Amino acid sequence: MSFLAYAISFLHFFVGCDNYVVAGMTVSYEGNPIPYHENSLLSDCNSHCKCASNVWDPVCGANGITYVSACLAGCETSVGHGKNTVFHNCKCLEINSSWTGNNSATLGQCPKSDDCSMKFIYYTVIQVIGGFCYALGATPAYMIMFRCVQPEFKALAVGLYTLIMRMLAGIPAPVYFGAVIDKTCLKWGSTSCGKRGACRLYDSNANR
Asked: 49 pLDDT band (50/70/90 cuts)?
C-alpha cells in the first residue's frame, strides 16, 4: 500500500500549471520564453526609468504579460487610486510585435487560465487517494512489527521505529525540501530592513 501511494504521487507531475507570464523572468519583454535562471528585469524599454529591481509590485499589461512593477513596464502616467489605479503609455508593451492593443496596465498579476484551476482539483483528488492508500498501510506496518518482535521488546521496537522515522524523515525533510524549493525561486521579496524576505515568484516547472 505504501508503494502504491508512492506510485500515485507520480501523477502529480502531469497536473502542473504553467509559469506566470512575467516579463524578464519567465518570458522576455518580447513575449518569448526564456530559460530558467536566465532572467533580466532591465530592458531597453525601461532602461531610462532607473527602476529598482528589488521591488515586487506587479502590474498586468493589456497584452496579458505581468511586469514586476509599473516602472519596469515603462509606464509614464497613471489614473485612479489604490487598487483601481491604471497605468498608461507603458513602453514595454510596445516592443511585443504581436500586440496591437492599448499600452495600459492594471495593478496585480495577470490571472492564470481556467485550465489551471481544474488541475488543482485533479491534484487534490490524487492527494486524497494517495493519502488514503498510505493510511491503509500504516496500521498493518505496526501489526507486522508487533507480531515479529518478542513481547518484552515491543515497546522498545515501537520507540526505535519512531526514532528512526523522525531522524531520517520527519526532522531533515523540511530542511532539504525547503532548500530545493528555494532553488526554484525567481524573485525574492525584501523586508523593511533590506534583507531577503519571502519568495514572490517560483518557477513552477523547475519546482515540479
From this structure: confident
